[in-house]
């Protein structure tokens, strides 16, 4: 089955949380399409620390389901550059919302820069 749905807009909903683990926000990705909205829930922003360099970065974690021995990611976007841009824009929204700087953030990105 082939669907002809045009994505017209992308909107991340970021909800900051305080937890003892490294999760700092829950994220819902909303893709506004010609046929309606597609919501992807279960995403998180996580603070990761690299042991050797002692640097901390904010990373986007896609939703996952638990298998027998490990978790499996349930979100796949075929274009790696598009996925990276969506993640960067989500992290930018979190930093704007909380005022926290993100040292890992490469450049300013806007919704117009995302090729949907």
Topology diagram in text:
Elements: E1 7-16, E2 23-33, E3 37-49, E4 56-61, E5 64-66, E6 71-73, H1 80-98
Antiparallel strand pairs: 1-2, 2-3, 3-4, 5-6
What sort of overall outline do the alpha carbons produce when their principal axes are compared?
globular
Residue fraction in strands: 35-45%
Mean pLDDT: 81
Computed structural class: alpha+beta
Instruction: Provide the gyration radius in Å.
Output: 15 Å
Q: How many H/I helical runs? A: 1
As for the number of domains, it is: 1
**Biggest pleated-sheet summary:** 4 strands, antiparallel
Q: Element order, helices and strands? A: EEEEEEH
Distance from first to last alpha carbon: 21 Å
Number of strands: 6
Characterize the structure shown.
This protein has one domain. It is globular and about 45 Å long. The protein is an alpha+beta fold and 116 residues long. The model has no long low-confidence stretch (mean pLDDT 81). It has one helix at residues 80-98, and strands at 7-16, 23-33, 37-49, 56-61, 64-66, 71-73. The relative contact order is 0.19. It has a 4-stranded antiparallel sheet, with helices on one face. A hairpin with a 6-residue loop joins strand 1 and strand 2 (23-33). Helices cover 16% and strands 40% of the residues.
